[in-house]
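#struct-help
A.M.: can someone run this one for me? Single chain, 293 residues.
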Amino acid sequence: MLVMNNVSKHFGEFTALKDMNLEFTNGVYGLLAPNGAGKTTLIKMLVTLLFPTKGEILYNGTEITSLDEQYRNVLGYLPQEFGYYKNYTPEKYLMYLAALKGINKKEAAARTTELLKLVGLEDVIRKKMKKFSGGMIQRVGIAQAMLNDPKILILDEPTAGLDPKERARFRKLLTELSRERIIILSTHIVSDVESIANEIIMIKNKTLLYKDSVSKISRILEGSIFETEVPFSEVDDFRLKYKTIAERQDQEHMTIRFIGNEEADPNWKRVTPTLEDVFLHVYEDDQTLAGSV
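D.P.: on it. Structure tokens below:
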């Protein structure tokens, strides 16, 4: 079990996070917030790249800084940008990292082959990475995070550069891996976690806003989400009156998904709220949201 007790992080007078209380057991946790909300700061504290200004982080009841190497031995981490050697092949790169981790050569070779097959790179195992696409590089990053068969796997924006097919494969992989480990997936893309996360963690104003299942968080807006068709000439007035969530332009009108708190108009269709509805509602005033979802 991984636990954060009253954790705050300050950089001088700037507060990045305050009074975070979180508990993780085996499963997938989606850390969902816009860029700049504090996700990376939280993750860097969990992987000991930063240390709390206040509070403690415990693994199985012991402070992680006290565990030192013992903790790092059960930890797998993929940062937003990871360093790699362009002239290395995936096989050579993983074998190099395995040596740094103290994994014996025979075990490392077997593990490297297994992981590159797992992430769909078995056909390019000896091809230099300078010829790889961004998505292929990201898959190498996922493989390196799994080298030591970690009990805690922390991934910071791991689907950057992946196409829809690769993203689907990645989600399936995480579901399989989560049976035996804690997986924390930081993202600002709702679809990355909506179908696989056991719980969603949302941060706002530097504090924990929600930690719950997708269904329970979505129910926050139950009965309040509608869709309706609005003539183009009336769209501006409609936007002023109601909080719009999404818009789709058709030939003769705009179909608008919005929050309605008044008695429903006969032309409105009440719809089931989604996690994305909540995300857009919660962070509507966040300047980092534009272009992020």
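A.M.: thanks! Confidence is low (pLDDT under 50) at residues 287-293.
D.P.: also worth noting: The first helix runs from residue 39 to 46.
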